[in-house]
Amino acid sequence: MLIRRPPDIKPSEITPRGLYLDRRRFMLAAGALILLPGAAGAALRFDGAVKTRWGEGLDVTSVEDATSYNNFVELGSDKSSPKRNAAALVTRPWSVTVEGECLKPGALGVEDLLAPHPLEERIYRLRCVEGWSMVIPWVGVPLGRVLQRFEPTSRAKWVEFTTLHDPQRLPGQRRAVLDWPYVEGLRIDEATHPLSLLAVGMYGDELPAQNGAPLRLVVPWKYGFKSIKSIVRIRFSETRPKTTWNIAQPDEYGFWANVNPEVDHPRWSQKKERRIGQFFKIKTDMFNGYASEVAHLYAGMDLARDF
Ligand code: MTE
Predict the structure, then answer these.
(1) How far is the CA of 20 from the centre of ligand 1 (A)?
(2) Closest ligand 1 atom, residue 72 Cα
(3) Cα(265) to centroid(ligand 1), Å
(4) Which pTM was predicted?
(5) What one-character DSSP code corresponds to residue 34?
(6) CB of 300 within 8 A of CB of 272?
(7) What is 45-298's CATH number, 3.40.640.10, 3.20.20.70, 2.30.40.10, 3.90.420.10?
């Protein structure tokens, strides 16, 4: 769509976009609570995130490793290219649409989407299906709390998440390596489980682009590919959503993707993992160490069939 500028505004009166973004960034960085006219919500205060008990006793992965060894195919196919290509992913402004089986659908900026819930810091393990893992201090809000305000109906059995589709900002989407945009899904009780986190930050600061800025999912008891990055749409649905890796290779990547040392991936054993930054491999725990919190969600399911 071509949007024309009214002829009575002189070019010199228009604030260049870069300057506008810098000003807004400055307001956010200063933690200013003054709302600009028409501005949506208060800035996110990463330094004030509430500390939680999650992750006590775990050695946190270095910020350098967590931000330079990434899977984000939209920013490149190997581990180092997401960081190299991160500048392409401009994340302001950003809006997230929440729709489908709910009474109050809407489109909101990230700050508004999370308000009024306090940000929490949660140190979670992240286990990739490729056999490596990290321990990351995420900053975010439990997903269930965010979903509540949209008032899902009784038909909302599943929740689908969609990544931004924009080959300018996500240059990896210029190549058809996956079916774009990246989509993921959870059953509603998984999505509203207190462990599921909608993250906006890590290591006390906002998310770097390569880690899924400005907003990503973190589902710590599932393989990393469920933790979809750079989300623009959340949809409640009555039917199970399709998921990107399952579409690409259904015999290798299941919908459920619960971490399970007893069920090997066709190409990788899942019994052990290499914690990035450590020398010796360690044993992989059922549900990635969160069995006491989540095992009941799968009671009666055959986890070898529903992998
Ligand atoms: N989300 C999108 N949109 N695109 C991706 O390629 N990769 C997934 C997941 N989320 C991916 C994604 C995979 S395979 C993993 S292991 C985690 O992101 C990695 O998250 P990290 O780079 O922050 O460690």
Answers:
(1) 30
(2) 6
(3) 17
(4) 0.88
(5) P
(6) no
(7) 3.90.420.10
